[in-house]
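Table S2 (continued). Query chain:
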Amino acid sequence: MEPALVLEGITKVYPGVVANRNISFSLNEGEIHAICGENGAGKSTLMKIIFGMEQPSEGRIFLKGEEVHIRSPQDAIDLGIGMVHQHFMLVPSFTVAENLVLGMEPSRYTKLDKSKAIEATRKVAEQFELKVTPEARVEDIGVGMMQKLEILKALYRGARILILDEPTAVLTPQETDELFEQLLLLKKRGHTIVFISHKLKEVKQISDRITVIRKGEVAGRFLTSQVDEREISEAMIGKLMGGGAHREHVHPGRQALRADSLTLLDENGRPVLRNLSFSLREGEILGVAGVEGNGQRELIELITGQRRLQEGSLSYGEKELRPRSIGQVRSLGLAYIPEDRMRNGCATGGTIWENLITNRLSDKRFSRRSWLRKREIENDSRRLVGEYDIRCSSISDNVGQLSGGNIQKVVVARECASDPSILVADQPTRGVDINSAEQIHRKIIEMSRNRTAVLLVSADLGELLDLCTSLIVLFNGEITARFEDISDLDEKELGFYMLGIKRQGGVS
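Corresponding output:
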């Protein structure tokens, strides 16, 4: 059988950086082909070339035996190639149907024909057995339905080759199982699927073949049935991985943070948090699990001073406070690793040393009488770059020039260097490669050992179960479960509480 898509000698050079070097691989019709690699290895660049978002510096692309030139995403769509991005490309205020037909709207008297849009959505959803609610607004649906909608958008436009970038990043185990069933159905229909993921267990479960990319080059090609996770990991990072980082038995100390009866309404008067109470103690790693959009973001914004309290109270140590600013909360010893490192975590136009020092400018080691002590700052920055294995040529490099994983390590290094009493870590390893994630995990455990209280919010259930000493689950702005001992808890059981299928009695 002739391959559906072939890449020959693809090279992509940016000023001073070779992102892809002489990459060749093929996609067979009706297969699920996994692409694995560390953050910054060149996976995303390669997929952008296939989807026409980037142009190769060298190399050729063949579709069903004929050479093609994909100069834009529209060219890719016209050739039957679709891409579902890790961060959904949907308009929240539009309905499911309006998002599906966007750019291809059926019209009546120059206006969108909503009934035809709804009909088209129902038809394509039925055809591919992907259940969605056409009339629902995207801002009101769950991430599982958003994922289906993104896939349906590509199929509606005629995609035969689907590129899925980290498609399970924000899904529960149950939603992941459902997605995999749907991908297998598409495979049976002859669709070709490119599955980009760092979750090797899922790669083994769903794929037929695996291509590993390391430092911009192909580092391994495998039949999935003939390789194990350890071999894939070794190909990705060039060495055997350790056993990973795991929680330690701790004796929690004094109260570091307490939330009492937090209630929050959004701009439309709808409850986002409902009478939410919990406490966090010294040395404890308290996990917060929940499907994205169930109050996690608002809770963190309240705790870190980004949002004003409406009802309820927050206590930092023994001090009850209604935070008025981020600076006020930080002065109490709170550090914060934000979910979005690019928007909230760093100044991309600043140097590495500038980003590493921003939360410690008042420290007398680094400033005196409003003057920066440059030598001390540079020495400390070099120490942190070495300790956190931040890959750069100089501490004077702009942070924006680093890979995503290295930017995340800059953020983690800065926050942990302040020796906080409370660390709020929101998706600390999202979009980070295996090696970097393990380094961050070990640092979180080390901080817990040194009596820092850690609040860990993560969509990666394996991360929560590996690191946390206790756990709460949020659903619809409420705590539906509390676990003081999670040694017997598994991902599927946790997923039932996250989806609201289960709820512990007496929990509020």
